[in-house]
Amino acid sequence: MTTVLRSHADVVAAALDPTRFSNDVSRYRQVPNGLDGDAHRDMVRILAPFLAPAVVDGLEPALRAIAQDLIAELAVRPDFDAVGDLGVRFAVRAQSAWLGWSSQHEPALRLWVAEHRAALRSGEDRRIATTAARFDDIVRLLLDERRGCARDDLTTRLMRVRTVNGGLLSDADVVSILRNWTGGDLSSLALCVGVVVRWLADDAARARRLRDAAASDLDAVIDEILRLDDPFVSNRRRARENAAAGGCPVHAGDVIVLDWRSANTDPAVFGPGFDPFAHAAANLVYGIGVHACPGRQLATRQLRVLVQELLTAGTIQPASGAPAVRESAPGAGWRTLPVRVVRGGGAAAGRAS
Ligand code: HEM
């Protein structure tokens, strides 16, 4: 049986109780997401340096160059899709820069994101498994490249990292880690870009006020935008014992769904309206507890840099032609979001036509 937890209190209670609710829900090994207890703690510890603040800071110039190049290319078009043309390409290039992947893999990764999103939309298990296997093939190719000729990049470092027992990670675990770091998060980041760009395009004057915002204020605004339209919908847990969740009895083995999207807009916790600072402490966009997102600083920096570069390039406006289309369940956010950049961004440019 599956129980869906929707209130903020219920979702937080389950996420903070890994003793009663296990992350071992998938039939595939998922590292570190699907691990529990000591195995999870040890893995999180050896992977933490890959996402450390110094790594994120060191990546920022590359992220800025990627954002500038992409925006320069898209801004001369009459319009472009903020998710497919901007979000997916930015996500693929940013994650590739972080992991040291060559640009020759970009077409395969972009195609994979499109197939993965379509497979999730279809809800067909076989199609989802096929796209997951295709991602593993791409990753295995990247590992083989490094076996032939070692490189000085994070992917090579991951292949050489020592576990708590002193051995190397198995190939299957390296593939799983890279799948969890990039696979799902390429689409998450692309969808986050769509949600944030929509907010910028909705009100040009409001967006312009962010141009001189301090980095930490901008991060808080982005978190609040994502809280109100969270594209990272849910995660699952499995009850280890007979228990209660959300006021319902659950039996050992039952699946519990943590509905982040619903919890993030629970009126019992969040006041009406847009209030980045008042709502920050309860914001669940990146989860909570031992499984909270270790990629939060990286994702936040990627989004901050992209927003700064968009605001510098001009004013983002909804495009007048094709309509924006919402993503369908189990996804969220925007499937396509046609927008344009009006260079300069003065008062006249700020008025949507
Ligand atoms: C783009 C925006 C992102 C959002 C909204 C997001 C959201 C989340 C959430 C809600 C969780 C908690 C899952 C749970 O409790 O079961 C999570 C976990 C995780 N995220 Fe993210 N994430 C993002 C980006 C990233 C990035 C860029 C990376 C890696 C580079 C990453 C890697 C992970 C991993 C490995 C976990 C599992 C952690 C664990 O189980 O210990 N995420 N993420």
How would you describe this structure to a colleague?
The chain is α+β, with helices and mostly antiparallel strands and 353 residues long. The protein has one domain (26-233, 293-350): Cytochrome p450. 54% of the residues lie in helices and 12% in strands. The chain has helices spanning 8-15, 37-47, 53-75, 82-99, 106-122, 125-148, 154-160, 171-202, 204-208, 215-228, 260-263, 276-279, 296-313, 347-350; strands at 2-5, 21-22, 80-81, 234-239, 243-245, 248-250, 255-259, 314-318, 325-326, 334-336, 338-343. A 4-stranded mixed beta sheet has the order 1-7-4-2. Strand 5 and strand 6 form a beta hairpin. The longest helix has 32 residues, at 171-202. The radius of gyration is 20 Å and the shape is globular. The chain starts with a strand and ends with a helix. The model is unreliable at 346-353 (pLDDT under 50). Bound molecules: protoporphyrin IX containing FE. Protoporphyrin IX containing FE (HEM) binds at residues 15, 32-33, 44, 180-181, 185, 188-189, 192, 232, 235, 260, 285-287, 291-295, 298-299.
| Shape-level CATH architecture | Orthogonal Bundle
- Into which percentage range does the β-strand content fall? 5-15%
Topology, number of strands: 11
SSE topology string: EHEHHEHHHHHHHEEEEHHHEEEEH
So what's the CATH class? Mainly Alpha
| Number of helical segments with 4 or more residues | 14
Mean pLDDT: 93
Overall form: globular
Instruction: Return Rg in Å.
Output: 20 Å
Number of domains: 1
Structural class: alpha+beta
Q: What is the helical fraction, as a range of percent?
A: 40-55%
Sheet with most strands: 4 strands, mixed
- CATH fold group: Cytochrome p450
What small molecules does this complex bind?
A: protoporphyrin IX containing FE
